[in-house]
Amino acid sequence: MARDLPVEDPLVRMQRDLKRALQKNPKDLKWGMVIDIAKCIGCHACTIGCVAENKLPPGVVYRVVLEEETGRYPYVGRRFVPRPCLHCQNPPCTKACPVTATWQTEQGVVIVDYNRCIGCRYCLVACPYAARTSDFGEWYTAETAELPGKLYGQKAAANGYEAHPAAEYGRKWPDRDHDSPVGNARKCHFCLHRLKVGMLPACTTSCVGRATIFGDRTDPNSLVYETIGSPRVFVLKEELGTRPSVYYLK
Amino acid sequence: MITKKWEKNLIILTIIGLVVGSWGMYQRLAHGHLAMNYGSFVPWGLWVAFDLFFLGLTAGAFLITVLTYVFRIKLLADLGPLAVFTVLVTLMCEVIIISLDLGHPWRVYRFLLSPNIGSMLFWLVVFITSMWIIYVPWLYFLLREQLVAWGNDETRPGHKIYRFLALGKTAYTDQERQRDSRRSRFLSYISLPIGLIFFGAHGAIFAILHNRPIWNSAMLPLIFIVAAMLSGGALITFLAYLYQPSDELIQPLGRVILLTLLSFLFLEGLQLFVGYQSKITGIVTSLDLITIGPYWWAFWIVHFLIGSLIPAYLLIRYPENSKMVAVACFIIMVTFLSVRLNYLIPDMAVYKLEGLQNTFYHQRLRPEYVPNLNEWLVSVWVISLGLLTFLLGTRWLPVIQAGKGEEQPV
Ligand code: SF4
Ligand code: SF4
Predict the structure, then answer these.
(1) What CATH architecture does domain B37-359 belong to?
(2) CB B383 within 8 A of CB B49
(3) Buried (b) or exposed (e) across A155-177, using 16+ Cβ within 10 A?
(4) Confidence of residue B410 (pLDDT cuts 50, 70, 90)
(5) A68 vs B32: CB contact, 8 Å cut-off?
(6) Please, what is the average pLDDT of chain B?
(7) Cα angle vertex B240, ends B236, B245, to 5°?
(8) Strands, E, within chain A: which ranges?
(9) Which comes out higher in pLDDT, residue B246 or B319?
(10) Dist. CA B116 → ligand 2 center (Å)
């Protein structure tokens, strides 16, 4: 029997859920995400959406899509596992940080204070999911030739995009130079700056297969709450006891 | 014994090291971490290995200070002030190289403003600072008598500086001698627990991480302490041979080094055995990287053959020959970097999530890490600075002359 077509795009429902969540007392709110592996088509649109949203420099990536081969020839399969920061409820990374530059907010989002981070990279070593990357100060336009006096060339190209960092954490960061976030640990923050203005995280809206569900995991009427209840649900490396807020559906 | 000619040659060598290494320093200071090879999957590289290496050297010197001033072993008394000075020089190297490894070294004040007392790294910084707070005044109390004497000796070049360092004092009474000796004994007592926790804490930084299969064991802090005692003990024995050559001193030290070396090899063997027997893929893959990976030679040839078997042979075969003991110690000390690298890199150099290798490609997101020239040059610079400080210190400060040790029979 053919499956029923969804009556409503999940994005529309999530948008409604988000609106409701933002009206709640922030203290009663816990953000969560569910990624349906069966729906992920491995297009990497979320990775690119995130890179563009947060203007991530080369080598810094918040959300990758892992590609796994399963089974043995001739019964082989391939599956895709998008991996943002899992916003662990028992995060090893925040405990490692010597200067409290990274912590969990009341809404369960693990964030980094770029101005406080000393760049020791201990949190990178401590994260079991390789979800943190360090900003080494690289530029996409580093190899672009400079053409003085023209509208294009290295400087113009950089100014058009990567010289002005994104408004991560809702802050206006100075133009990219030696200063933060260069030299810092960086990671997914569930696009807090978008949530604040009522927009879903960039990975969620860009997900072509609608495999990413986001919302308030304490709201029984939300899609995310409903999906977490699925018998297909699991978390990555459960044995480590990190209790991620990002769940997966088999 | 180190001759004036040797000392001069070494000083020239360190100056060459500083000049050559300054290219790496320029790269680090002007371009941050851009010119270095570590990345996000292997976030700690050569400099952290050197940090551990210097830590080991600190530990050996620390051991001698404790044996001299806390346990009052007369045999080592001559080495006391030299050992205290060595602790400070190796600590200096450690602090410099680890600061260079930070993304924002100028933010170290953050340790005061927003400390995380639950972080092992925070405690490490507390203990490093405590070591400074203990060892700087301690060295001063040990040297004061000689500083006063040198300040009074108008024929000595720079006697005014010594007078200044002695805070203008021209006489050193018995009473003052006793007071300084009480003070240094007090500092030595507090250095014992602080030092032990300091060396253990280094191992604990790695051992507490759940997700790191070969680090995450209660044995690691112990291995770190033994490793530190081995490499540092070797350094001190070597220095003893150079500065206070006496068979009575070198030979027992040689026996201690041999025992420490065998204990270390035993612990290392145990770790490999337990790791391999666990048959857990993550652990076996990491251990394979050490024993049969592309850098197998660093383990088998540099560490095991040159750094362990040959010195063990020399120490067993020629226990009465101080020169051979010193050679064995020198080999242990210089090859120990391979041990540090072997503890540090392989655990990080294994993908912790299946499929990570096939996704986002970038050279900072790969597990293959080989230190590049800039990283080596910076290390050369720091080592040269340390060596130069040591050589000039032993020349311009009375660390050898003050080495009559307070524990000698009066
Ligand atoms: S996934 Fe990693 S970075 Fe994210 S909260 Fe968990 S431990 Fe921290
Ligand atoms: S890199 Fe920054 S956030 Fe991570 S542990 Fe170090 S100081 Fe904390």
Answers:
(1) Up-down Bundle (1.20)
(2) no
(3) eebbeeebbebbebeeeebeebe
(4) very low
(5) no
(6) 89
(7) 165
(8) 31-36, 64-72, 75-83, 102-104, 110-112, 133-134, 185-186, 212-216, 233-234, 246-249
(9) B319
(10) 11
Rounded to 10 deg, the angle between the B373-396 and B80-101 helix axes is: 150
How far apart are the CA of A74 and the nearest CA of chain B, in angstroms?
Answer: 20
The predicted pLDDT at position B408 comes to 44
Could you report the per-residue pLDDT of A175-194, keeping only the tens digit for each?
A: 888 888 999 999 999 999 99
The pLDDT value given to residue A105: 96
Instruction: Return the amino acid letter for A13.
Output: R
**Nearest C-alpha of chain A: how many angstroms from B105?**
6
Size of interface A-B (CB pairs under 8 A): 153
Structure tokens at B229: 């005692």
Is residue A215 within 8 Å of A31, Cβ to Cβ? yes
**CA-CA distance, B237 to B227, in Å (whole number)?**
15
pLDDT at B286: 86
Which residues of chain A lie closer than 8 angstroms to B364, CB-CB? 58-59, 133-134, 136, 138
Domain ranges of chain B: 1-36, 37-359
| pTM, two decimal places | 0.91
pLDDT at B87 over 50: yes
Q: Which ligand is nearest to the CA of B104?
A: 2
> What are the tokens at B65?
């200070």
Q: What 3-state class would DSSP assign to B295? A: coil
ipTM: 0.89
Q: Residues B192-241: pLDDT tens digits?
A: 888 888 888 888 999 999 888 888 888 888 888 889 889 988 998 898 88
And the tokens for B268?
A: 């290392």
Ligand 2, residue A126: give the atom nearest the CA: 5
Pocket of ligand 1 (CB under 6 A): A 85-88, 91-93, 110, 127, 129, 131-132, 187, 242
Tell me the residue type at B156: R
Q: Are strands A31-36 and A246-249 parallel, antiparallel or unpaired?
A: parallel
CATH fold label, A2-241+245-249? Alpha-Beta Plaits (3.30.70)
Cβ-defined contact of B353 to A58 (cutoff 8 Å) = no
CB contact under 8 A, B111 and A127: no
Contacts of A4 (CB under 8 A, 6+ apart): none
> Which among A99, A124, A125 has CB closest to B110?
A99
Q: Which of B42, B109, B121 to mutate to test the interface with A (most CBs of A within 10 A)?
A: B121
* Residues in chain B closer than 8 A to A67 (CB atoms): 355, 358-359
